[in-house]
Amino acid sequence: MIVTEYELLVCLAAELNMRKSAEKLFLSQPALSQRLQTIESRWETKIFFTNAKKAYY
């Protein structure tokens, strides 16, 4: 399954939880975090602020 950036961002915004978003997208949590960091570095801005379990925007 190929997850687009849009799907990743929408799922994370809906769940506000890295683990649950990763599960819904069939990704590992580290893979989700890495893809989010890639998007944020490309756009040169923080989209979500995360701690151990939650994501905030």
Features:
57 residues, mainly alpha, Arc Repressor Mutant, subunit A, two-stranded antiparallel ribbon, 3 helices, 2 strands
Question: TL;DR of this structure?
Answer:
The protein has about 55 residues and is mainly α.
Count up the domains.
1
The rounded Rg comes to: 10 Å
Structural class of the helix and strand makeup?
mainly alpha
Largest sheet descriptor: 2 strands, antiparallel
Integer average pLDDT: 88
Count every beta strand, where a strand is a DSSP E run of 2 or more residues.
2
CATH superfamily: Winged helix-like DNA-binding domain superfamily/Winged helix DNA-binding domain
The end-to-end span amounts to 26 Å
Care to describe what's here?
This protein is mostly helical. It has a single domain (5-56), classed as Winged helix-like DNA-binding domain superfamily/Winged helix DNA-binding domain (Arc Repressor Mutant, subunit A). It is 58% helix and 7% strand. α1 crosses α2.
What is the element layout, followed by pairings?
Elements: H1 5-15, H2 18-24, H3 29-43, E1 49-50, E2 55-56
Antiparallel strand pairs: 1-2
Helix pairs in contact: 1-2, 2-3
